[in-house]
TrEMBL record:
Lineage: Bacteria, Pseudomonadati, Pseudomonadota, Alphaproteobacteria, Rhodobacterales
Gene from which the chain derives: rnd
Gene Ontology MF terms in the entry: ribonuclease D activity
Cofactor: a divalent metal cation
The protein's role, per its UniProt record: Exonuclease involved in the 3' processing of various precursor tRNAs. Initiates hydrolysis at the 3'-terminus of an RNA molecule and releases 5'-mononucleotides.
InterPro entries, per database record: 3'-5'_exonuclease_dom, HRDC-like_sf, HRDC_dom, HRDC_dom_sf, RNase_D, RNase_D-like, RNaseH-like_sf, RNaseH_sf
Coiled-coil residues: none
Enzyme Commission number: 3.1.13.5
SUPFAM superfamilies registered for this protein in UniProt: HRDC-like, Ribonuclease H-like
Stated name of the protein: Ribonuclease D
Organism: Paracoccus angustae
Length: 389
């Protein structure tokens, strides 16, 4: 078991890895006390055939917390077009590398996405794929460990390596399945989303859109927008969790009560003690004032009044989606969400469910159903599409 702590050792491994067809990658990180994920460990594994010429063997651990270690050799491997970088559920890993180095590993393969495309269900977990494809079991005892502590225990190291060694078998199986069923382009569409910087950028001025509230008053929303903007910027600049500034329920309370002084903040039931005075309190009061004075009032998206037949059409679209998903062997939620089905029934057309491979599997017939060009027919336990007219 090799733990790389020196840049020159990482460089030797990564240079040799560039001759391999793929490398499996995983990370361990902490985020409980920071805004940005703290990278604590990187796991890398190569096909067993690559072992003789790869320093350190076929699988290694890289310690990014080691003094003086530069990850630039790894980023060079990530840029190398001849080696596929294989992750499972890559989004959080990619966010770390995008924030730290401004890059995405390419070419990229995500086994969770590939498994959904190949009919393994929604958000299929790594443990499930290890059991079903690699025919092995995982030791989960180190799952909730503190990966920032050193030295790593043997159990931690073994757990971490298992996240990339079994991944080789899973990748080779799923890549073959995609070639066989002709769905490589489906995966490419999903990978494009993972490689889009917009997926990982949270702009303070847009943070209010993620806050759930039942109040749609434009003035309330203006204050909420300013409060969320302040919280996001403050948390990002100081690398602390949003909840350490103030939580959503406290923000909604403040937007409703509109405090004007620190004394007003002191009467809040939900604000943390640290938020009732000092820099955070000043930011809150300034945000409330800006929200009260602005003429740029946000408008909540109004719910469209129900149109005749819309509720029924939504139900029909759900039946069509289930039938199409079953026929394609794909999880229904990978094709379209419940909200998208309702939006189609209300006349919206700029939706992911109506584009790319989803249009081929479901979207085209969904539009035909909405236009009254097809109907659904039940026979036994199956549902069929029937042309109308």
């Amino acid at each position: 078991m090799t733990i790389i702590t020196r840049t020159e050792d990482l460089a030797r491994f990564c240079e040799a890895a560039k001759s391999a067809p793929y490398v499996t990658v995983d990370t361990e990180f902490l985020r409980e006390r920071t805004y940005w994920s703290k990278l604590c460990l990187i796991q890398l594994a190569l096909p067993p055939a690559s072992t003789p010429k790869t320093p350190g063997g076929e699988a290694v651990l890289v310690d990014p917390l080691a003094d003086g270690l530069s990850l630039e050799p790894l980023y060079g491997l990530f840029r190398h077009p001849g080696t596929v970088k294989v992750f499972h559920a890559a989004r959080q890993d990619l966010e770390i590398f995008f924030h730290d180095a401004g890059l995405f590993p390419q070419p990229l393969f995500d086994t969770q996405v590939a498994a959904m495309v190949c009919g393994f269900g929604e958000q299929v977990g790594y443990e499930t794929l290890v059991r079903k494809i690699a025919r092995a079991n995982l030791d989960k005892s180190s799952r909730f460990t503190d990966w920032s502590r050193r030295p790593l225990s043997d159990a931690q190291a073994a757990y971490a390596l298992a996240d990339v060694t079994h991944l080789r078998v899973i990748y080779e199986f799923l890549a073959a399945e995609l070639r066989k069923n002709g769905r490589e382009s489906w995966l490419a569409e999903e990978i494009a989303v993972l490689e889009d910087p917009e997926t990982y950028i949270t702009r303070p001025e847009e943070a209010w859109l993620k806050v759930r509230t039942r109040t749609n008053s434009p003035r309330f929303l203006a204050i909420l927008r300013e409060l969320a903007r302040f919280r996001e910027a403050y948390a990002q600049e100081r690398d602390i969790p949003r909840s350490r500034v103030f939580k959503d329920d406290a923000m909604i309370e403040v937007a409703s009560t509109k405090p004007a002084t620190e004394a007003d903040l002191g009467r809040s039931r939900l604000l943390l003690r640290e938020a009732r005075k000092g820099e955070i309190a000043g930011g809150i009061l300034a945000a409330v004032k800006a929200g009260l004075e602005t003429r740029d009032l946000p408008q909540a998206k109004a719910e469209e009044p129900g149109k005749p037949g819309n509720a029924a059409l939504s139900d029909l679209l759900r039946v069509l989606l289930k039938a199409k998903a079953d026929a394609a062997g794909v999880a229904p939620k990978l094709i379209a969400s419940s909200a998208e089905l309702d939006a189609i029934a209300q006349g919206e057309r700029d939706l992911p469910a109506l584009k790319g491979w989803r249009a081929e599997v479901f979207g085209q017939d969904a539009l035909r159903l909405a236009a009254g060009e097809i109907a659904l027919s039940a026979k036994g336990g199956s549902v069929r599409v029937v042309a109308v007219g």
